[in-house]
Amino acid sequence: LLPLVLIATAATVIASQALITGVFSLCMQAIQLGYMPRIPIQHTSSNTFGQIYIRRINSTLLVGCVALVLGFRSSSNLAAAYGVAVTTTMVITTLLFYVVARKTWGWSLMLAAPICGFFLAVDLLFWVANLLKIPAGGWFPLVAGGFIFILMTTWKKGRQILRARLREVVLPLPKLIENISSDPPHRVPGVAIFLHSNPNDTPPALVFQLKHLRVLHEKVLTLSVVTQEIPHVSQRDRIRIKELQEGMYSVTLRYGFMEDSNIPQALREISLKGIKLQPEDITYVLGRERLIATSRPGMAIWREKLFVAMSQNANSTADYYQIPWERVIEIGIQLDI
What is the C-alpha separation between 331 and 285, in angstroms, rounded? Predict the structure, then answer.
């Protein structure tokens, strides 16, 4: 018995490390692609990319594992949940393989359908057989997966609604520049960087600053961070700069979903492209939205309340993009979603 216990313990440690690594990587990619709220990510290596630690996710895994052990009490009781989880994953993987083969690899229907159909037929046999185990514990991975799916889709949809609401209260960038030209505000020394998610829109914080303070820095950068649906973006394509009028520039930073978004580091590269930026002269102006769930078209009210709660617990923009807090100004904006 003792040797088997030692082997099982070693296997558990190895499996847990694989689980932790996979969950951390997937969570970081989901955050970059906009399917999860920003949470603190600790990079444990300055030389190797991908060595990360996410404390909240690690704590969630701990609570989940302890709850599973206490709830199911034995590995035999977990067999039903394990079978449903594995076979469902096999079916989903085959379906995703078909999508990738058709859209990414460019396979024809005559090639992709027979290959994927063969594997799907085998997977479905195992999956249908395991459906009988749902009442015996197989319900757990389905409930857990469904809960995570609801969270991710709620966040994605909520961010889309939020961007639409923000567009209702801001001016188009050309119109804003025209207003600045016709009625110049007071200009102060320094550089102001306004962060915004959409490079084609005007940052709401910029509009509210001009509306209420009537002040603008000598040099203004509207900065957008765009995550591409590819793992990495080459340095050549990282930065796009468009010079506007009245001392304004539109800057877009492009990252892959497996890359770390570090704005201060990117600003050093911007300085090499002709826009001289001194760190001590830079002020970051961020918008801080206060969201209120309403009956306006968009999502069900319970999903809107869930999105508001997720937004309140999300990591701040400054922390996520590694912006020094001593150079940050936040402007509050109230929005009904």
Answer: 7
> pLDDT of 277-325, one tens digit each?
777 788 999 888 888 888 888 888 999 999 999 988 888 888 888 888 8
**Residue (of 190, 226, 188) closest to 327 by Cα position:** 190
DSSP 1-19: -HHHHHHHHHHHHHHHHHH
From the list 236, 246, 112, 228, the residue with the least C-alpha distance to 176 is 246
| Residue 235 Cα to chain centre, angstroms | 21
Q: Rg of the Cα trace of the chain?
A: 25
CA pair distance 275, 92, nearest whole angstrom: 48
Reduced to 3 states (helix: H, G, I; strand: E, B; else coil), residue 31 is: helix
Closest CA to 314 of 40, 52, 55: 40
CB distance 57 to 25 below 8 Å:
no
Query: How many C-beta neighbours within 10 Å does residue 64 have?
Result: 11
In this structure, are residues 300 and 154 in contact, taking their beta carbons and an 8 Å threshold? Answer: no
pLDDT tens digit sequence for 135-189: 888 899 999 999 999 999 999 999 889 888 887 877 778 888 888 888 888 898 8
In contact, 256 and 230? CB cutoff 8 Å: yes
Q: DSSP characters for 169-195?
A: HS--HHHHHHHHHHSPPEEEEEEEEEE
Helix, strand, coil distribution of the chain in percent, nearest 5 = 55, 20, 25
What is the phi/psi pair of residue 106, to 5°? 75, 25
Q: Please tell me the pTM assigned to this model.
A: 0.79
